[in-house]
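Supplementary Text 2. Reproducibility record for the structural model of the 353-residue chain.

All settings were left at their defaults, and a single model was retained for analysis rather than an ensemble. We include the record here because the model underlies the residue-level annotations in Supplementary Table 4.
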Amino acid sequence: MSFYQMLVSAIIGGTLFQLLQLPLAWLLGAMIGTIAFIKLTKQTPKLPFSFRTYALIPIGYTIGENFNKQTLMDMVTHLPSMLVLTICLILFSLLLAVVTNKLTHSNLKSTIAGSIPGGLTQMVAISSEIKGIDLTVVTIIQVSRIMTVVMLVPFIVYSPIFHAGSTAVASANAEGVNWLFLFFLVISYAAGAVAKKCKFPTPYMLGPLIIIAGLLLIGMDVPAIPVPVIAAAQVMMGIDLGMQMKFGEIENKPRFLAVSIISSIVLVGFSFVLSAILLGIEENISLLTAFIGLAPGGMAEMALLGQAVKADLTIITTYQLFRLLFILFIVPLIMRKVFLFVERRQAAKVVIK
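Retained model, structure tokens:
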């Protein structure tokens, strides 16, 4: 019974966030609703199945939907600049992580995972598979950055710096649901199971991503996932996150939150510097497009912003998607090796002492 009560609390939280038009409304709202239920009732219900696994499938599916031949061609054309600027952004994020760690005395692994601009859902999913990472720290840093970016970047974009006067907002897609998406969801689940056997990081996100992208690239018509299914996936992920959040384990919470927000603002400033550098590397890219493409926010949110100000959506999606894929495929491998190296050095110091 308590599980269903928690589920209702999560849905209410998501609904409130949606009405307030906050970013990642169903995920963050469900997370807050879950935390509120657990704190008020002192109960932690057991989930009937792995919410994270089933939530990651449609998320990987939707990322794969962003692939087409034009996106792939743009990615190849801009590969050198995307690679260099993505690495610069990640390295700067790691520098901020070290500073945050020094100022807050938090877990270094968790601070690094939280500071990498790979998206809340993706980084929490990756972090959950690495030992010694506090998902509460990761989530707080990621949420702080997302909220800061989503509020700050539009303010900068609409400022006189870019002279972006257009405020057109895309209309909602009113097309009916293509129920064939259920068939492709089953295929995506199977791809996730195969990816798990192959020991891929976050297999139930990467498996669907790869199979859906592959089907699109060979010319198959893959139906879009309906918005309610994406909302349900976000609710499940939000509940899973809410059940893992243990704020009591973080020392000096106000200081930690303040440092996280300030580091997010600094990261946005650095992405603006990178966008100015990009103008000197690539032709036919406006500063507006470059800034939104390199902004450390979610791909969906930045694409929506780019559409509103009539920036080049292909370039924005390409840069955002490349960073996301780089972080999904490459960063987990690097993180594991770096953390293993650090653990061995620490163990060696203990032996010497």
